[in-house]
Amino acid sequence: MNRREALFSLGAMTAAGAAVASGQAGAEVMRGIPAATGITPDHLPRPITRGGFQVLTDEKDQRLLAAVFDRLIPADDNGPSATEAGCLDFLDRQLAGDYGAGAALYLEGPLNRQNDEAIMRQPQFLATPRARYESGLKALEAYAQKEDGKAFADLAPERIDAILEGLEAGTVSLGSDVDGQAFFELMLQNAREGYLADPIYGGNKGMAGWKMMGFPGARYDYRPYIDRRGEDLGLTPVSLIPND
């Protein structure tokens, strides 16, 4: 399975789950809603403001992440690369908010990796995602400088692939302070999220990820299409951003 097929499979699982959930719902259109409950301008979704990073302010970090993301999701005939789709903008805004601060994570001890793996099926980290990126990017850059004598972003695509494959397999070590395999999985997860999230969050520019997969987007009502499974509905994707 190549990188873009991995995106397709992820989207297929999400769409299948949504179809099942929609099929079980028996909601009816509400009428005569009191005007006081209407959406006011301050409740409307607000797209991110582009033009400057809040967390990824170091140009070296930007170049390194761009090199990683564009090998995870490269440009081809199906769509743009991760950075072309705005995945760095997406990640920066996520790291600047509650996600980056680990607001929904348990970050207290004791830390018992074996126990966490057995119970949660994933390792526990006492560091926030923002801190994990800070230490992980430094360690990855240091690895490239030590092994290749140049910046990670300046390595040949084949060499970047080899390092990423080693991180994924757990055969490339970034030192005792950074779990290289888990850091790779974090970057892959965020690249996917940025490519497939609603454009209001900074990624998926022009809804390129949705168009590639045939996902109609954030439409109000899918009930007319619930029974039309396996069909190309020909629906233009809709974003939470007005007129996007």
Q: How are the SSEs placed, and which strands pair?
A:
Blueprint: H1 3-24, H2 59-72, H3 87-96, H4 98-101, H5 113-120, H6 129-148, H7 157-169, H8 180-196, H9 208-213
Description:
The chain has a domain at about 55-215. About 45% of the residues lie in helices and about 0% in strands. It is built from nine helices and no strands. It has helices at about 5-25, 60-70, 85-95, 100, 115-120, 130-150, 155-170, 180-195, 210-215. It is globular, with a radius of gyration of 20 Å.
Strand content: under 5%
Radius of gyration: 20 Å
Mean pLDDT: 83
Number of DSSP E strands: 0
State the low-pLDDT regions, or none: 13-27
* Class inferred from helices and paired strands: mainly alpha
Proportion of residues in helical segments: 40-55%
Tertiary shape: globular
Tally of helical segments: 9
- From the N-terminal CA to the C-terminal CA, the straight-line distance is 32 Å
Would you summarize the structure shown here?
The chain is an all-alpha fold. It has a domain at 55-215.
